[in-house]
């Protein structure tokens, strides 16, 4: 007779101790979720996420400790037949430059009117760029760009005959993030609406089956199982709402789902056995 493997012995033991095996696995899932939530997630550094020569280069750049900042630009452009040599254009550039120099989180302001910055004027003679930097990493600059955007907006209102707008690393990142957040919220709202409809139908279906079963005179054991499934289903809907704010609930959510599945299988098996049982003589 061939020797039983570990998997065979485990399966044989599980078949003889069904309840212990099932609830043991459920307890393991709960403990694993709780321990995982307590330990937290270890995030790999950006410079370690690549491979080969690119990872080596990223690590060297990180080790060089270059100043973290975002480069921003302000476009000052004449409308219609206006030119960058107009007096009103020069006044607007000086005013915008001075406003930026007084703005919080704004550094390294470079005016196109300064000596050596002639390259910040366009070749068509209608536009000019004011450059500056915002110190900080990506997350910090995305939050700090608000102050410069408010300054540029005030400059635009002060000089309505010109076009004065800001663009750059931080402002583009902020605009892209806002657009993605809006799209995700819209998708989430549609998904939640569909989920609520499905959950509502399932809940209604469960109530109808429970009522019909009670009216039909189902036995005590099937009735208890049906009520338990109904209560767990309500809890599952509550867990979905609370799992983002409460980590412990996030751990209970899948466990509750396993319980619903297990009880539903037991109820289906009992119902089938009752249906196929021979009628009393």
* Biggest sheet: strand arrangement: 2-3-1-4
Give the proportion of residues in helices.
55-70%
Please state the overall shape, judged from the principal axes of the Cα atoms. Answer: elongated
* CATH architecture annotation name of one domain: 2-Layer Sandwich
Quaternary structure state of the chains depicted: single chain
Radius of gyration using CA atoms only: 33 Å
Intertermini distance: 45 Å
The CATH class of one domain, by name, is Alpha Beta
Low-confidence stretches: none
Question: Helical stretch count?
Answer: 8
Topology:
Elements: H1 6-16, H2 18-39, H3 52-64, E1 69-78, H4 87-101, E2 107-110, E3 127-135, H5 138-158, E4 162-168, H6 169-215, H7 220-242, H8 247-276
Antiparallel strand pairs: 1-3, 1-4, 2-3
Structure description:
By secondary structure, this protein is an alpha+beta fold. The protein has a domain at 69-176: Multidrug efflux transporter AcrB pore domain (Alpha-Beta Plaits, 2-Layer Sandwich). It has helices spanning 6-16, 18-39, 52-64, 87-101, 138-158, 169-215, 220-242, 247-276, and strands at residues 69-78, 107-110, 127-135, 162-168. A four-stranded antiparallel beta sheet has the order 2-3-1-4. Helix 7 (220-242) runs antiparallel to helix 8 (247-276). It is elongated and about 105 Å long. The model has no long low-confidence stretch (mean pLDDT 80).
């Amino acid at each position: 007779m061939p020797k039983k493997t570990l998997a065979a012995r485990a399966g044989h033991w599980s078949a003889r101790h069904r309840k212990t095996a099932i609830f043991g696995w459920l307890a393991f899932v709960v403990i694993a979720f709780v321990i995982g939530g307590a330990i937290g997630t270890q995030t790999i550094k950006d410079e370690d996420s690549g491979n080969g020569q690119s990872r080596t280069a990223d690590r060297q750049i990180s080790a060089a400790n270059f100043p973290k900042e975002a480069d921003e630009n302000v476009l000052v452009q004449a409308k219609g037949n206006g030119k960058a040599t107009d007096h009103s254009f020069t006044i607007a550039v000086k005013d915008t430059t001075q406003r930026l120099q007084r703005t919080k989180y704004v550094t390294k302001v470079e005016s196109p009117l300064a000596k050596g910055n002639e390259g910040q004027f366009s070749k068509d003679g209608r536009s000019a760029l004011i450059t500056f930097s915002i110190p900080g990493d990506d997350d910090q600059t995305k939050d700090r760009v608000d102050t410069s955007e408010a300054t540029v907006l005030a400059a635009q209102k002060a000089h309505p005959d010109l076009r004065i707008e800001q663009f750059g690393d931080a402002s583009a990142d902020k605009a892209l993030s806002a657009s993605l957040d809006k799209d995700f919220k819209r998708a989430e709202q549609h998904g939640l609406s569909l989920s609520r409809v499905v959950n509502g139908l399932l809940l209604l279906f469960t109530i109808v089956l429970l009522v019909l079963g009670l009216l039909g005179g189902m036995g005590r054991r099937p009735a208890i199982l049906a009520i338990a499934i109904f209560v767990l289903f309500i809890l599952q809907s509550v867990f979905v709402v609370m799992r983002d704010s409460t980590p412990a609930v996030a751990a209970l959510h899948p466990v509750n789902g396993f319980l619903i599945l297990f009880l539903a299988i037991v109820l289906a098996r009992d119902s089938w056995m009752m249906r196929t049982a021979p009628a009393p003589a």
